[in-house]
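Budget justification, computational time. The allocation requested in the original proposal was used primarily to generate structure tokens for proteins on the priority list. As evidence of use, we reproduce two of the resulting records. The first is shown immediately below.
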Amino acid sequence: MSLAHRFAPTAPRALVLALAGALAISLGSIVPALDGAMDDRASPDTVTHAIALPPAPKAATDIVTPRSEWQTVRVAQGQTLGSLFADLGLSARTMHRVLEVPEAQQMASRLRVGSELAFEIGADGELKGLRFDHGDSQRVKLAVSADGVQREVIERPVERRVVVAGGTIKSSLFADGAKAGLGPGVMNEMVKALQFDIDFAQDIREGDTFQIVYEEIWREGERVRDGGVVAVNFVNQGKAYTAVRFERDGKAEFFDLDGRPLRKSFMRTPIEFARLTSGFGARRHPILGRMRMHNGVDYAAPVGTPIFAAGDARVKFAGWQGGYGRTVVLDHGNGITTLYAHMSRLGPYRVGQRVRQGATIGFVGASGMATGPHLHYEFRVNGVHRNPLTVTMPKPEPLTGPALAEFRRATAPALAQLKRIEGFQLAGR
């Protein structure tokens, strides 16, 4: 069918011829125009535009391998180095290679909640590096490869800043210490410095006051932790007790203002922060129901609370002893023995072994004839029971001569810091 027939199938012949002629004229004008356009491409006036092409694919040697990444891990309760490696998908074999480095062994054995370790893990999931602090002033960096473990120790100088704080007992020792900005470590050291003169389990009263000079450890402009107590003054029931730290024979000890060591031959209370529930003397037995002599003192405390050796001694007995339950008896020499009863479990010491004052010899329990968890503590002199709370403890000899002069020189700055606190009054013995 012709084009004319598509648009007008019934049109007269003249109209068909006119349409055909018009179409021929149109085609004739288009063709020369195309020819002109083809000729213009060779004209020197032609404008060209560059088009950016996509980059060619990189050769295999140009492909960038994903880099290793460092992950910092903070140790949580109950975690060990082994569990940290397992959580990160690292093998025990790799961990054992790392533990061949002495500093890594020490780190693993002293891992504490809050410690930070940084692991460098490669794209293949293997350990490439490990960073951890070794003490306050060093950081250890280990590079792990197929050839072995390379160790680098980075020195990080620390600064010790002296800080003074104080407070008044209104609710409890540790709560009021926290209000004064003191951490548990500082408060514990204060208690240990004065534990031979103050029974912190029963003697503390509302209105008692304390002032402490202690150190803070700073590194690279950041506070790392609390340091040790330098000096402390505690006013208990109106009586002041002062302790200052002094290093003698390479060991730091606490002394009173006269240069006499505060560490006595015996601790007054061989357990921390327990509540005295029964004193020395005649009483009605809580289980037997009849009056009988109570030959020691009782301290109520949660099961598992550590029990300390009251003084240097040799273990005379460790085991089950009738109504006393699990019991330890220590022989301190000069006819003095101490007894610790109703333990939930014994410490690591066995009969015949030497123990130092303050060593953990067992843990509070309710074994034997006991109505609840507590420590029953006895003090005997030549087999005769004495009241542990009132028996006279021998005083150690004070410093003399050049040692006393050095003590006064070395402790003067700390005492000056204490005196800065308004209303403070130093106390001798």
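The second record produced under the same allocation is shown here.
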Amino acid sequence: MLTLKDYSVSYGESEVISDLNFHVKPKEIVVIVGRNGMGKTTLLKSIVGVINSKKGEIKLQDNLLSNMKSYRRIEAGLGFVPQGRMIFPMMTVKENIETGLSSTKNKQISDEIYSLFPVLFDMRNRRGGNLSGGQQQQLAIARALASDPELLLLDEPTEGIQPSIIKDLAKTLRIIRDQLNLSIVVSEQVLSFALAVADRVVVLEKGKIVLDQPVDEVDENKIAQYLSV
């Protein structure tokens, strides 16, 4: 579904992602974990085209994304939920989700999106800024799903969310994967969430992959060591 080959990203002279080789299979949930500053957010932003890559190749199925603008990558099948959610606080829930339709031919929000997030249907006429942190995260995901992605990218989705809601979020992402046949890539620091949602766990350390394993083969203590300061 997604392939990165010899992929590097730099900020000026500082290389943040170095010669990365990475893939995501169809209907696979991959969680990228690592401490702050290890390159997780940079990697996701570069995949969606917010940050330019320095070198290497990126493909979504057979589509070469490397030279595409960000909006073209969304049209090609990427969905992105940024860190901090970035919803439009003064717009209604319905209007927020409708902004995701702009890259599609759809004119209306699908019933399937509201079935995944029934609270958003109940609050569809409420301003996004009046929702709780967990509800805003659901809204950001729903907006991304409105663009009909084949691969969904989520950057630190548990940030600012209560622990009880985090468990529900892991369950919801698996339901989204199964119902919509999506591949999902998540960057995350909360290990319990990563292990609950992932099919595969990747550890990023200083812009390089230092561990890549199916979740049922993961040594939790070993990953925890990478995440410790």
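A brief technical remark on that second record: Residues 2-227 form a domain with the Rossmann fold fold (CATH 3.40.50.300).
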